[in-house]
Design brief:
single chain, 4-stranded mixed β-sheet, elongated, 10% strand, alpha+beta
Protein backbone atom coordinates (compact mmCIF):
# COMPACT_ATOMS: atom_id res chain seq x y z
CA UNK A 1 0.00 0.00 0.00
CA UNK A 2 2.61 2.57 1.02
CA UNK A 3 5.15 2.00 -1.78
CA UNK A 4 2.33 2.69 -4.25
CA UNK A 5 1.73 6.04 -2.53
CA UNK A 6 5.34 7.08 -2.92
CA UNK A 7 7.19 5.86 0.15
CA UNK A 8 10.89 5.21 0.64
CA UNK A 9 11.74 2.31 2.97
CA UNK A 10 13.57 3.15 6.21
CA UNK A 11 16.18 0.62 7.31
CA UNK A 12 18.85 0.33 10.02
CA UNK A 13 21.37 1.53 7.45
CA UNK A 14 19.43 4.53 6.09
CA UNK A 15 17.98 6.01 9.32
CA UNK A 16 19.41 4.05 12.25
CA UNK A 17 18.04 6.21 15.08
CA UNK A 18 14.48 6.25 13.75
CA UNK A 19 14.49 2.55 12.88
CA UNK A 20 16.04 1.57 16.23
CA UNK A 21 13.43 3.54 18.18
CA UNK A 22 10.49 1.79 16.48
CA UNK A 23 12.22 -1.60 16.59
CA UNK A 24 12.93 -1.35 20.34
CA UNK A 25 9.40 -0.05 21.06
CA UNK A 26 7.92 -3.04 19.24
CA UNK A 27 10.22 -5.53 20.97
CA UNK A 28 9.29 -4.16 24.42
CA UNK A 29 5.62 -4.56 23.49
CA UNK A 30 6.00 -8.08 21.98
CA UNK A 31 5.23 -6.99 18.44
CA UNK A 32 6.78 -7.48 15.03
CA UNK A 33 8.54 -4.37 13.79
CA UNK A 34 6.50 -2.72 11.03
CA UNK A 35 8.06 -1.63 7.78
CA UNK A 36 8.77 2.10 7.97
CA UNK A 37 8.37 4.43 5.02
CA UNK A 38 9.13 8.10 4.47
CA UNK A 39 6.58 9.72 2.16
CA UNK A 40 7.90 11.31 -1.00
CA UNK A 41 4.79 13.49 -1.07
CA UNK A 42 5.18 16.86 0.62
CA UNK A 43 1.45 16.96 1.42
CA UNK A 44 1.56 14.26 4.13
CA UNK A 45 2.42 16.02 7.39
CA UNK A 46 1.85 13.42 10.07
CA UNK A 47 2.12 9.65 9.97
CA UNK A 48 -0.24 6.73 9.55
CA UNK A 49 -0.26 3.01 10.16
CA UNK A 50 -1.62 0.26 7.95
CA UNK A 51 -2.32 -3.40 8.38
CA UNK A 52 -4.91 -5.29 6.38
CA UNK A 53 -6.10 -8.51 8.00
CA UNK A 54 -2.98 -10.60 8.73
CA UNK A 55 -0.68 -8.87 6.27
CA UNK A 56 2.56 -7.21 7.22
CA UNK A 57 2.10 -3.86 8.86
CA UNK A 58 3.66 -0.55 7.98
CA UNK A 59 3.95 3.05 9.09
CA UNK A 60 4.44 5.95 6.71
CA UNK A 61 5.96 9.15 7.99
CA UNK A 62 5.56 12.53 6.35
CA UNK A 63 8.66 14.54 5.39
CA UNK A 64 7.17 17.63 7.01
CA UNK A 65 6.86 15.78 10.34
CA UNK A 66 10.55 14.83 10.19
CA UNK A 67 11.59 18.37 9.27
CA UNK A 68 9.33 20.37 11.61
CA UNK A 69 9.19 18.31 14.81
CA UNK A 70 11.64 17.46 17.57
CA UNK A 71 12.92 13.91 18.00
CA UNK A 72 10.71 13.52 21.08
CA UNK A 73 7.61 14.59 19.10
CA UNK A 74 8.46 12.27 16.21
CA UNK A 75 8.92 9.36 18.62
CA UNK A 76 5.60 10.19 20.30
CA UNK A 77 3.75 10.20 16.96
CA UNK A 78 5.41 6.91 15.99
CA UNK A 79 4.52 5.38 19.38
CA UNK A 80 0.91 6.46 18.74
CA UNK A 81 0.97 4.75 15.32
CA UNK A 82 2.52 1.60 16.81
CA UNK A 83 -0.37 1.67 19.30
CA UNK A 84 -2.82 1.54 16.39
CA UNK A 85 -1.01 -1.55 15.10
CA UNK A 86 -0.77 -3.16 18.55
CA UNK A 87 -4.54 -2.93 19.09
CA UNK A 88 -5.43 -3.79 15.46
CA UNK A 89 -7.42 -0.57 15.00
CA UNK A 90 -7.23 -0.60 11.22
CA UNK A 91 -8.98 -3.96 10.87
CA UNK A 92 -11.48 -3.12 13.61
CA UNK A 93 -12.37 0.10 11.79
CA UNK A 94 -12.89 -1.83 8.54
CA UNK A 95 -15.12 -4.25 10.45
CA UNK A 96 -17.10 -1.31 11.83
CA UNK A 97 -17.55 0.10 8.34
CA UNK A 98 -18.84 -3.27 7.13
CA UNK A 99 -21.30 -3.50 10.03
CA UNK A 100 -22.62 0.00 9.41
CA UNK A 101 -22.84 -0.77 5.68
CA UNK A 102 -24.99 -3.84 6.36
CA UNK A 103 -27.20 -1.83 8.72
CA UNK A 104 -27.61 0.91 6.11
CA UNK A 105 -28.34 -1.63 3.36
CA UNK A 106 -30.93 -3.39 5.51
CA UNK A 107 -32.71 -0.14 6.37
CA UNK A 108 -32.66 1.65 3.01
CA UNK A 109 -35.74 1.48 0.80
CA UNK A 110 -35.54 -0.61 -2.37
CA UNK A 111 -35.63 1.31 -5.64
CA UNK A 112 -35.51 0.35 -9.27
CA UNK A 113 -34.02 3.45 -10.91
CA UNK A 114 -30.27 2.99 -11.35
CA UNK A 115 -29.38 6.64 -10.62
CA UNK A 116 -31.26 6.65 -7.32
CA UNK A 117 -29.71 3.29 -6.41
CA UNK A 118 -26.24 4.66 -7.21
CA UNK A 119 -26.84 7.79 -5.08
CA UNK A 120 -28.15 5.67 -2.22
CA UNK A 121 -25.06 3.45 -2.41
CA UNK A 122 -22.75 6.47 -2.44
CA UNK A 123 -24.55 8.05 0.53
CA UNK A 124 -24.48 4.68 2.29
CA UNK A 125 -20.71 4.42 1.86
CA UNK A 126 -20.22 7.91 3.29
CA UNK A 127 -22.64 7.16 6.15
CA UNK A 128 -20.91 3.88 6.97
CA UNK A 129 -17.43 5.36 7.04
CA UNK A 130 -18.51 8.42 9.03
CA UNK A 131 -20.55 6.39 11.54
CA UNK A 132 -17.66 3.98 12.13
CA UNK A 133 -15.23 6.85 12.70
CA UNK A 134 -17.57 8.62 15.10
CA UNK A 135 -18.48 5.53 17.08
CA UNK A 136 -15.11 3.81 17.30
CA UNK A 137 -12.52 6.25 15.97
CA UNK A 138 -12.25 8.48 19.04
CA UNK A 139 -11.80 5.55 21.39
CA UNK A 140 -9.07 4.15 19.11
CA UNK A 141 -7.24 7.50 19.10
CA UNK A 142 -7.44 7.63 22.88
CA UNK A 143 -6.14 4.06 23.14
CA UNK A 144 -3.22 4.83 20.78
CA UNK A 145 -2.41 7.98 22.79
CA UNK A 146 -2.52 5.96 26.02
CA UNK A 147 -0.14 3.43 24.47
CA UNK A 148 2.30 6.23 23.62
CA UNK A 149 2.02 7.63 27.17
CA UNK A 150 2.60 4.20 28.72
CA UNK A 151 5.76 4.02 26.62
CA UNK A 152 7.01 7.30 28.13
CA UNK A 153 6.05 9.64 25.27
CA UNK A 154 3.45 11.82 27.04
CA UNK A 155 5.61 14.96 26.88
CA UNK A 156 6.24 14.42 23.16
CA UNK A 157 2.52 14.01 22.49
CA UNK A 158 1.69 17.14 24.44
CA UNK A 159 4.30 19.24 22.66
CA UNK A 160 3.25 17.84 19.28
CA UNK A 161 -0.39 18.81 19.80
CA UNK A 162 0.16 21.96 21.88
CA UNK A 163 3.57 23.36 20.89
CA UNK A 164 3.05 26.87 22.32
CA UNK A 165 1.76 25.66 25.68
CA UNK A 166 4.27 22.88 26.12
CA UNK A 167 7.41 24.93 25.49
CA UNK A 168 7.59 25.56 29.24
CA UNK A 169 6.77 21.94 30.11
CA UNK A 170 9.72 20.17 31.68
CA UNK A 171 8.32 16.87 32.87
CA UNK A 172 5.11 14.95 33.28
CA UNK A 173 4.85 12.26 35.96
CA UNK A 174 4.20 8.83 34.46
Amino acid sequence: LFPMSGGIVVTKATMPKLYSYVDSLCKVNNMDTPTLFISTSSSLFNAMASKLLRSACGIIIGQKLLNDCSDNEIEAVLAHEVGHLKYNHINKTLGGILIFSFIYKALKPKTMHWLIAFCQSYIGAIFSRTAARIVIGKSFEKQADTFACQNKKAVGLISFFEPAWSSSLTSVPY
